[in-house]
């Protein structure tokens, strides 16, 4: 191993994303190795015993950890500025473990109501099955969080910006309230990306990602990440993951590890393109509403200025004519493809009311700000002028 510490805090994030966590084998490879192995052999029975007692550093079994997965975790921890990181098979495995690992029967969870559909399922339907109650609140309203707290409240959970309406919550204010009432705050940071928002620095206890999105960034593999203090991971996450088994494949971890090297380049360019697209959309009379964290018209623009260092790569907007208008618009696009994924190099667009948030009643969708005409656009790496031309042609047909 070289003496160069690629994860040193004195280095810029771009440098850490290329070097942090690298563990070279005896062959001295430049590119991080893919250790596609389920397990590891021991030199002696004594060494096996010591490994299981955590007295001998090293690996045992890929459900617990793996060298390629460990490189991803170390690189991501260095990037986020977290003491510890654990990778999971999917973003939902990360969300579920981060919450379920902390609670037991009788506990209570408070969460912002504007959530990705599966996140909302975990809080609203999965937890109550095991005797953990939950209350959903209007996220930007700090008084609503306070009013929802009970003596049993253990966890606060939020997404900011939220999926798909890009609602922004004052993370520092919610974190301060969590500390005051003895709860922890878990933040799903997918829409901000680790480049533009650092929830741990704002007082959150745990950050989760769907690495499927901008971290892969090229639509290939599923993955999730949980970042927190060493104590948080050891107390709430480590045993839960080890024993229940939502481990990431070493192959998927390798894809994510290599993708982190280019994340700042990709996300900055995608956000830049999203800004051009959002500014153009905002001038269109057939679009009554355009939501983008980089627009001055965003309802929480003051909070964005305080807690984010960049916007997002996503834009939400409403098309005139409800569902029919939205469908006509989507069907008129040629370059931008209809897909529920996001964060990809390819621009992708979706109608949340009939796809990602279809299972909610129209009333619940309305309370989440998801109207029949709402569209979510994930802006990719194409030239922004080509994207605007495609949107303009489709809009002309509405
Ligand atoms: C996609 C997504 C998830 C779930 O991630 P998977 O990798 O699909 O399991 C969780 N939260 C948000 C905000 C997402 O966009």
Word description of this protein:
Homotetramer. This is O-succinylhomoserine sulfhydrylase. Its EC number is 2.5.1.-. InterPro entries: Cys/Met-Metab_PyrdxlP-dep_enz, O-succ-hSer_sulfhydrylase, PyrdxlP-dep_Trfase, PyrdxlP-dep_Trfase_major, PyrdxlP-dep_Trfase_small. It contains 15 helices and twelve strands. The model has no long low-confidence stretch (mean pLDDT 96). β2 (108-112), α5 and β3 (133-137) form a beta-alpha-beta unit. The protein has 398 residues and is an alpha/beta fold. α1 runs antiparallel to α3 (67-80) and α4 runs parallel beside α5 (117-129). The chain has two domains: 2-108 and 144-156 and 170-260, Type I PLP-dependent aspartate aminotransferase-like (Major domain) (Aspartate Aminotransferase, domain 2), CATH 3.40.640.10; 264-396, Alpha-Beta Complex (Aspartate Aminotransferase, domain 1), CATH 3.90.1150. It starts with 12 loop residues before the first helix and ends with a helix.
> What hetero molecules are in the model?
pyridoxal-5'-phosphate
Summed up, the helix count is 15
Rg on CA atoms, Å: 22 Å
What's the structural domain tally? 2
User: Quick one: CATH superfamily of the largest domain?
Assistant: Type I PLP-dependent aspartate aminotransferase-like (Major domain)
Name the helix and strand elements from N-terminus to C-terminus, one letter apiece: HHHEHEHEHEHEHEEHHHEHEHEEHEH
Helix content: 25-40%
Low-confidence stretches: none
Calculate the terminal CA-CA distance, rounded to whole Å.
Answer: 60 Å
Please describe the biggest sheet, giving its number of strands, its sense, and whether it closes into a barrel: 7 strands, mixed
How many β-strands, per DSSP?
A: 12
Shape: globular
Lateral strand order in the biggest sheet:
1-7-6-5-4-2-3
According to CATH, the fold-level topology of the largest domain is Aspartate Aminotransferase, domain 2
The proportion of strand residues reads 5-15%
| CATH architecture type of the largest domain | 3-Layer(aba) Sandwich
Assign the structural class, choosing from mainly alpha, mainly beta, alpha/beta, alpha+beta, or little secondary structure.
alpha/beta
The first-level CATH class name of the largest domain: Alpha Beta
């Amino acid at each position: 191993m070289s003496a160069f510490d690629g994860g040193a805090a004195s280095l810029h994030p771009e440098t850490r994303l290329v070097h942090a966590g690298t563990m070279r084998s005896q062959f001295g490879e430049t590119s991080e190795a893919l250790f596609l192995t389920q397990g590891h052999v021991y030199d002696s029975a004594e060494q096996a015993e010591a490994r299981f007692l955590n007295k001998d550093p090293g690996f045992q079994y890929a459900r617990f950890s793996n060298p390629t997965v460990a490189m991803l975790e170390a690189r991501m921890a260095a990037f986020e500025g977290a003491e510890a990181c654990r990778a999971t098979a999917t973003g939902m495995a990360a969300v579920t473990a981060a919450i379920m690992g902390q609670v037991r029967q009788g506990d209570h969870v408070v969460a912002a109501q504007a959530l990705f559909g599966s996140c909302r399922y975990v809080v609203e339907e999965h937890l109550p099955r095991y005797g953990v109650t939950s209350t959903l609140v209007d996220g930007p309203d700090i008084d609503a969080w306070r009013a929802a707290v009970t003596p049993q409240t253990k966890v606060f959970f939020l997404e900011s910006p939220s999926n798909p309406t890009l609602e922004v919550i004052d993370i520092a204010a919610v974190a301060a309230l969590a500390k005051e009432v003895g709860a922890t705050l878990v933040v799903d940071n997918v829409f901000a990306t680790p480049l533009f928002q650092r929830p741990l620095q704002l007082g959150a206890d745990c950050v989760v990602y769907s690495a499927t999105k901008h971290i892969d960034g090229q639509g290939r593999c599923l993955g999730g990440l949980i970042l927190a203090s060493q104590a948080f991971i050891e107390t709430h996450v480590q045993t839960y993951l080890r024993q229940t088994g939502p481990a990431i494949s070493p192959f998927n971890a390798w894809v994510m590890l290599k993708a982190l090297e280019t994340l700042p380049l990709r996300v900055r360019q995608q956000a830049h393109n999203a800004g051009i697209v959002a500014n153009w959309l905002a001038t269109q009379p057939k679009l009554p509403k355009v939501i983008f964290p980089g627009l001055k018209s965003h309802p929480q623009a003051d909070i964005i200025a305080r807690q984010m260092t960049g916007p997002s790569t996503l834009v939400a907007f409403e098309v005139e004519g409800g569902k029919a208008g939205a469908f006509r618009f989507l069907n008129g696009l040629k370059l931008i493809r209809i897909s529920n994924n996001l964060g990809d190099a390819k621009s992708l667009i979706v109608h949340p009311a009939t796809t990602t948030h279809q299972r909610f009643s129209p009333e619940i969708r309305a309370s989440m700000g998801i109207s029949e005409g709402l569209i979510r656009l994930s802006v990719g790496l194409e030239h922004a002028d080509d994207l605007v031309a495609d949107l303009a042609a489709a809009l002309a047909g509405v």
